[in-house]
């Protein structure tokens, strides 16, 4: 038996405190669920769950996905291929067979309260997008595009993002001199591309102070205006409107308001392109771990709710799903983040590294398993005369 000399002196022998043990029955239950996804506990495959603290199982039972995520951040468990771990869970629908009290509470709260009200909307800008421009420069690449790339003919992240931006411009049928509104303009990537390549006059709106400051500098000298405001505060008239990766912050209680606002801002023969992550089911799109630590008050929409929101407001001209490309985009961001960490860690808390890895790998796995989608919808107020054709 391992014995150690206590602080009381050489004659005082004591045993070390016992390591917390897992509830055997509970461990077996989780082992069975994981086995259905081809995942073993402490197995040799890269996607297997490596347990460092046996209290993991009771923490997951008590706190659901919040407990799983926080336990990873606290180094209670690992998986060498974390994205594949999540992909297997989603494919086997393990998430639908476990108790997840925080998710149920989050869903209930999202139906009770408007979590994305005008007063609450700026929180995601302050917590996430204002985090560190240095972090995002390293992770996203020189264009600072924080949305899914388009990979069919791309060999790199930069090529995939340029292909996506160009595709958006072509879907919108941009022409020189057109007035374009970019709702949720980020760091100005689309605004600059549309102004440089297509001669558009672009107004970008964002609720992030850091994004607005960066975008103004990034688009200096071009026909681009960047405003720090919520979409509900935007005024003017536009020939084209684009919204890339912002709709996930609108919330289902505001979908109809959002669509009506876009319609008010768009000329009758204009086009609106909505680029958003989407989920397959009607249920809650609120993930309690994500909303607590990554994107406050976020909600992933279902297609049914999106369509219901623009009923009698727009004609759907085109719907394009390239969600599988998001797995590759997230993997590229993850690899960039890992490479950059030694250069950026001085500005971030110690726990940030594992939390960010968990976020990027989790979403990469879910997209790989096709548990989430990436939609681009082209909408027209009165339909396109003679019909709309998606560009090749």
Topology readout:
Blueprint: E1 4-5, E2 13-14, H1 24-35, E3 50-51, H2 56-73, E4 77-78, H3 82-91, H4 101-112, H5 123-129, H6 133-140, H7 157-171, E5 179-183, H8 189-198, E6 201-206, H9 209-218, E7 224-228, E8 238-244, H10 255-265, E9 266-279, H11 288-293, H12 303-309, E10 315-321, H13 324-344, H14 352-368, E11 372-380
Parallel strand pairs: 5-6, 5-8, 6-7, 8-9
Antiparallel strand pairs: 1-2, 3-4, 9-11, 10-11
Helix pairs in contact: 2-14, 3-14, 6-13, 10-12, 13-14
How does this structure look, described?
The structure is a single chain. This protein has 392 residues and is of the alpha/beta class. The protein folds into two domains: 86 residues, no CATH class; 268 residues, Rossmann fold. The chain contains 14 helices and eleven strands. The strands form three sheets. The protein has a seven-stranded mixed β-sheet. A two-stranded antiparallel sheet has the order 1-2. Helix 3 crosses helix 14. The longest helix has 21 residues. The N terminus is likely disordered.
